Structure formats: C-alpha cells, structure tokens
User: Fold Fimbrial-type adhesion domain-containing protein from Acinetobacter bereziniae LMG 1003 = CIP 70.12.
Amino acid sequence: MKNHTTYLSSPIQALNVALQQLSYTSAFSSKLNVLALYSSKILRQSICNFFSNLSVKPYTMKFKFLLLTLLVLGSTQSFARQCWNSKGYTVVDSINYDLSTAFDQNNNAVGQSKDITLNFNKPIQAICETASFPYGLTVRSYITNEPIVENTSTFKYLRINDYLLGAMKINDSAVNTFYPPIKKTMGYDPNSDNGNAFSIRDSDLLLRIKVVKPFVGNVSIPSKTMFTVYVTTSDTDPLRYPVYTISYSGRIVAPQSCTIDSGKVLDIQFGDILASEFNQAGAGNKPHSINPETRSVSVQCSNMNAAATLTFRIESEKSQGDMLVSNNDDVGFKISDMSDNILIPNNLLSFSEFKLNQSQQATLSFKAWPVSVTGKKPAVGPFSSRAYIRIDFP
Assistant:
C-alpha cells in the first residue's frame, strides 16, 4: 500500500506590510582461578623461605606478606586478554537479514510468526592476544541496545516496529543452540591462546518475526543492527572490539492492501494569514480568521472481508504533540476526524475507524487547520507541511 500524501500550506502576511538480559557464568572466570592456584603455590613457597629467616622483625614480616599478597592478586586481574576480528581491530563483519518476504493471510494476524533462516556461510574469524598460560576457551557476547519486550523460555523478543517483534536462535558447532542476547562460553580452540586466527562457527541463524498488530499493504523496515557480537577470553572482560553484527532490513508486503485516491497527492490551501494572528491565538490554537478545511478521499481495498472495519491515522516527518510542524517552526497544522477527535501524528493509538462496503470501498473524511506551535509571531512567508494517511487493522 502506498501511503497517501497530503500537503498543507499557506503564506503568512505581515500586518500593514507584506506580514539484556544478559546471562552470566560465575563471578570469576575459571582461567583466573587457575592462575590464582598457580600463584598461591609461589606465595606458599615464598612464605616458607621468608619464615626461615628468623632474624626479621614481626612487623616487617607482616608488611612483606601483605605486599606479596597484593602483587599476586594484581597479577590475576591483569590476565584478561582482548580479541578482535582477524581482518583488523577496526573491521566489523556484518550479517544482514532481508525481511522482504511475503506474508500470507494466515501470517498477518496477532501472535502469528514467520521464521527466516540464514546459513552462516561467510567465513568470520577472530584473534586474541597471546596467553601466558594455556586456556583455550572464549566467551561470545551478543549485545543489543533494544529492551527485551517479551521473553519466552527460549526466544527473547525485541521490537522491530509498531507491528512486528523479532527474536533469534543460533546454533554453534561446539555449544549447540542458544538464544541472544546472551554471553556464552564457547568450545575449546588452542588458537585462542597462541595468537592465531580461529573461526566463529555460528550456523543456522534463525530470525523469528512475530506479528503484534496486523498491517495493511507494506511495512518498510530501515536497516538496523539487532546484535553486536564481541569475543573475549572471560565474561568479565571489557567489550572493546566488535567482531561482527547481525542486522535486518527490507519491506514486508501483506496480501491485504488499500489504495487511497489512487496514490494522488491532496493539496490543501488556507490562503493569506496575518502573522500577528498566530501569536494572538497562542500555542496550539488556530488564527481566529481561519476555519477548518474538510476533505474526503476514496479508499479501495483488496483481499479484505466485505464490510471489514479498518482505521486510519496520521504520520508525518516532523511533529510536536498533536501538531504537524511546518517548515516554519512557529506554525503547524492539526488534523481531526469528522467527530473533531484530533489525530495525533505518529501515534499508533490515535486513529479513527471506518467500514468497507461490499465492494471493499470506503470514503474517508477529515478536517485540517493551521495553528501556532510556539505562541510566537512567525516569520513572514509561505509555510507548508506534509502528512501521510496510514490505514491499519483495528
């Protein structure tokens, strides 16, 4: 479906002039515990040698014992090593899901889901700093900036847009299946210790798309990173160098569609308005000399049930509260349905209902008028704004 575009404009005249749930393992990694045990042997031997020298005074003995303990503890904390993409510190590989997959009528319903599988055939490798003591294990962190909005026993859903949620399942050759976002200890690979490259063996990456609100026509999804993946040598290491990202983009087309006035642009003119009328009206109000303009558009839908109830709402590129903001920041427009209910731009919950006839047709009517956005006297000159009419299921 193509959103219908409405242009609203008017010149201003001057008065008398031209007016993560992230999952963690133990608080300390096993490799640090190994180093601590090794260091404790050195510590015990040093203490034994130290006690053999009986000429040392007790308070001196206590001071040296504390100093040695602090040095050993410091060495365990400095064991952390950094890892990065084998192509370079600043190189980040990317895996992208193309969501341009047609939904059938059964998919486009609340609670229905669609799985998209992506085979991991792109060779991605990482390198870690050389280890002083063999360990061979790494931790992979799948990090997102989005909150988890729904958590099942497996899938953790993130918001894609007003209509869709997304969640991932990943199968790794060493640790089998897991569900990001997560920090996961991976399988043994000696190259993670010796400074050589080792493979990231994620495979069968599955993205599950879940419908939380059915949609009409198509939904455009801009490219967005879902997870950023880091490789470290413990679950407490800082995340400095991303190795690869998982992202999605595309346009999902539903079989149900509607066309508004065959995709025409509707232009609404309000004539000349005195600049002083805007600041006299105050923020959010219309100039006293202006009356709302009423417009109607025809709607033709397909693959709908006869007499189906749909909704329409307003989308805009720039808005403030319940107003569309024009190219003059001091003035804008408001739009309402025929019952004078203001349609708040870009608000999924602000809509007006209408019903199709037996031919899957309807006529939409609405009102529009200019308002002051700031309550200030605007600069003299033409102003305009652009709005889109979006049709949805209730």
